[in-house]
Structures are given as structure tokens and as C-alpha cells.
Design goal:
The chain has 186 residues and is mostly helical. The protein has two domains: 37 residues, no CATH class; 109 residues, AhpD-like (Up-down Bundle), CATH 1.20.1290.10. The chain is built from eight helices and no strands. It starts with 18 loop residues before the first helix and ends in a 14-residue tail after the last helix. Pfam families: CMD.
Length: 186
């Protein structure tokens, strides 16, 4: 869905950054627009950075592929082009996604032939969570079989978090980062 405005509703901070902002941005990662908006509130930015250090580490019960299935599908379902573009540009290759799978994540579904049974279970859970804010017993059983109970718990939290991120980037009207694409153009 196209953005309604070309200007972000809250302007990301621009360099040069003061020492505190530079430190906070160092905790978040590359100075993406979203991170530069969060850095306007250092306490918020540090909280987000702490959350991200867990979910983007080996401590998460989800593999990189599973995590990116959740994030890419969630952001596509939410129409969060900004976040989709960032994740596909940075993680699609690491997650082992090909062009057919990226198109399926953007506009297909779990039943598409490009997915393994485990991937299908993850995607079915994400789709059901998005549609109902819950999981049926069947979806839960399939998810636990695919990722285990710890992975299922992490999936619930990652999916919920990326709904919040999707709401944020859409409502802020953040334009795509340079070098990223919308979900309809992988």
C-alpha cells in the first residue's frame, strides 16, 4: 500500500549526532531512519536495542530462517514496505530465501509449493495470528512440531513485535531506505 505522505511524520535525527544519540545508535545498529526516530528518546531506543540483542542472537530458539519467515510475512501482511525492504535486503540471503519464496512471502501463502513442511507451519501460524490474534489447536500443534515449545514462544513474541514495528513505520510514513524494495518487487 503506497505511503500517504512523502515526509515522515516524525523526522529522524540527522547527523551530526551528540554523544548520547551516537551511543544509542551504536546500540541499535546502522543509522536507519526508524532507529534515528527511536533515538529521539534514548530510553526507548535502549529498550528496543536490548530486545533486539536477544532476538537477533543465537539465544533465540528460532533459526535465522524461521525468524525471517515470521518478520517478512508479518511485515508483508501489515503493508509495512519500509520494514519488509530492510529485512529482505539484510537477511533474505542469510535466511536462504530465493525469489520465488520472497514473492510467496509477499503475496502467496503457506500452501505454496516452495515451502518445506516446517516453513509451512511457521507461515500458517503467522497468518493465523495476523487474522485472529490467536492460534487454533491444530496450528499450535503444527508450530510446536516445527520449532518446539521455546521456538513457538519466541515466534509469538517476534510476530507481535513486528506488528508493532509495522504499525510504527506505517504511521510514521517512513520512506524506503536506499537500496531496498517493496514486497511486490523482489
Amino acid at each position: 500500500m503506497p505511503l500517504k505522505s512523502k515526509q515522515p511524520r516524525i523526522a529522524p535525527l540527522e547527523p551530526p549526532f551528540d554523544a548520547e544519540t551516537g551511543a544509542v545508535l551504536g546500540e541499535l545498529g546502522p543509522p536507519l531512519q526508524l532507529f534515528r526516530v527511536w533515538a529521539r528518546r534514548p530510553g526507548l531506543a535502549r529498550g528496543v536495542a536490548s530486545w533486539g540483542r536477544y532476538y537477533f542472537s543465537r539465544r533465540s530458539a528460532l533459526s535465522v530462517r524461521q525468524r525471517e519467515l515470521v518478520i517478512d510475512r508479518t511485515t508483508a501482511l501489515c503493508g509495512a514496505d519500509y520494514e519488509w525492504g530492510v529485512h529482505v535486503a539484510v537477511y533474505a540471503e542469510k535466511a536462504g530465501f530465493d525469489d520465488v519464496q520472497l514473492r510467496s512471502l509477499a503475496a502467496g501463502g503457506p500452501a505454496d509449493g516452495c515451502w518445506s513442511p516446517e516453513d509451512r507451519a511457521v507461515l500458517a501460524a503467522v497468518d493465523e495470528l495476523h487474522a485472529t490474534s490467536d492460534l487454533s489447536d491444530e496450528a499450535w500443534a503444527g508450530l510446536v512440531a516445527a520449532v518446539g515449545e521455546d521456538g513457538a514462544l519466541d515466534l509469538l513474541l517476534v510476530c507481535g513485535w513486528y506488528h508493532a514495528v509495522s504499525f510504527t513505520v506505517r504511521a510514521l510514513r517512513l520512506p524506503l531506505e536506499p537500496g531496498t524494495e517493496r514486497p511486490d518487487s523482489p
